[in-house]
Amino acid sequence: MSATQPLIFRKGLDMKEAVAGELAAAYHSALVDRVRAGGFRHEQGRLTLHLAREFGFCYGVDRAVDYAYQAVARFPGRQVYLTGEIIHNPHVNDRLRANGIRFLSDQGERTIADLGPDDVVILPAFGITVQEMVAFSERGCTLVDTTCGSVLNVWKNVVRYAQDGFTSIIHGKVKHEETRATASQALKYPNGRYLVVLDRDEAAVVCDYIRHGGDREAFIARFRHAVSPGFDPDRDLVHVGCANQTTMLMTESLEIGEMIGAAMRERYGDAALGTHFRAFDTICSATQDRQDAVLALLDQQRLDLMLVLGGYNSSNTFNLARICAERLPTFHIADPTALVSAAEILHKPVDASGEMTATTWLPDGPLTVGLTSGASTPDNLVGAVVARLAGFCA
After folding, report:
1. What is the pTM of this model?
2. Would you say residue 30 lies in a domain?
3. What is the pLDDT at residue 100?
4. Which listed residue, of 222, 339, 362, 383, carries a Cα 20 to 30 Å from 185's Cα?
């Protein structure tokens, strides 16, 4: 095997049946199956719980975790590595560590330069940067690529933008693994550029510069950690295309695209808009389905409070919590143990930087609770939350 042509598995490793039992034992929940079968409703004691109709593991996450277990089974006696967290769920990542997979992102772990042809490296669902892919290829590692298809779809559009000399304006979190990987795709061609915006406020700054120009140095200073090398807003905001981190809030991504399109239309006119602005729908269907399902739950049921289950560093889970927090008391919890008691809960408010403790969070009397979980949260954790909450309300 050439050092520049590593063995790459992208469609499984022919071990699906061999690991199916292990995966079911680790992540399945009979209680969640019963809640689904009962119309996504669970009643026990004074509790009525409504589960969103789309929740938990999406196809891309399920596939990534499946491939990780398959890799261990396929390569006995060889060291299997992950570049970093396979998904943003500490429970799942810790199970993978317990299964013998080492994380290159862990403190004191080996670096890419230490790896060789005998090593197996799993690429996470978020993808990795172009530069990282080149480095692993040069080391001759066997690669198991679990990059989500929705992410790959975004990459295709960003590469097209770069080919045609358009700057990719990416709605995302600049330090998120997926956004870093997506931004790197823009640099595959000499005229490719990128600019990452976090929210509507940052997009508004960009739109103002598109319309009127402004202080170039101040603009570069503001976005210095969110732009491609050598970025020049006077040159690089003339032709732009929109993209997004697939787990962002759908409505915000669409609104940012409309904001930028309106600014380009005002600057260059309707007739020339097509030569200056492009946008494609790159919203992940699983992200959209979970956001739509929680909105439907909020519209259809009278709830006392909402529980949102998933890792605190999970972007899609955070955005589910954002949606809910606008409507009713919402508690974003990392795992079932966060439900300490009927009087105490550990959670991360949407406007806080870390976990906090809330007391007297569970009202007395008949109680109606909504529950959803992020795309990186397995059913066994959802089931544990249902059981724990029901125990408080018996």
Report:
1. 0.93
2. no
3. 97
4. 222
